[in-house]
Amino acid sequence: MIEPESHPVAGAALPDGVRYVIVGAGVHGLSTAWHLARELRLRGQGSGEDVLVLDKTAVGAGASGIACGVIRNNYFQPAMRGLMAHSVAVWESDPEAFSYHPVGYLQAAPESMRAGVAQIYSEQQQIGYPSTLVEGEDDCQAYLRDLLGDWREDAS
Fold first, then answer.
1. Which residues make Cβ contacts (< 8 Å) with residue 54, sequence separation at least 6?
2. Best CA proximity match to 109, nearest among 130, 128, 136
3. Which residues, including other chains, have CB under 8 Å from residue 141's CB and lie 6 or more apart?
4. pLDDT of 86-100, one tens digit each?
5. How far apart are CA 134 and CA 149, in angstroms?
6. Where are the domains of the chain?
7. CA distance 149 to 35
């Protein structure tokens, strides 16, 4: 595996041959390359220099370089709720630096989860985490129509 200090620049010539190619220099690609190189060395089947990582742009330039996925605060464990509230506060402190683009979070739950979701809502209010609890089919439909102007529920 090529070490960071000798990393080729964009447009550099590729080697004539290599045994392993990992496509993508995000967290998964780099982890895969590192573990593969390590395993090859441990088994005496290679030095690790026979693992090449390719990326269309740069290391961590895609999803691995931004706060992606779901950032939520509806955990049942109070410690997790506190941790997430703190984390969101950190991300909101400098959204540009952290590439934080909040879009909201909506949870729809079946009747069997009503008590648990209501408990989460109550505990979110206790730690000052803003959230809205909407219960009942008619109220949920009205909320979604208000929130999403083009909301269309399936009447079937």
1. 21, 22, 23, 24, 25
2. 136
3. 153
4. 888 888 898 888 777
5. 17
6. 4-64, 70-147
7. 48
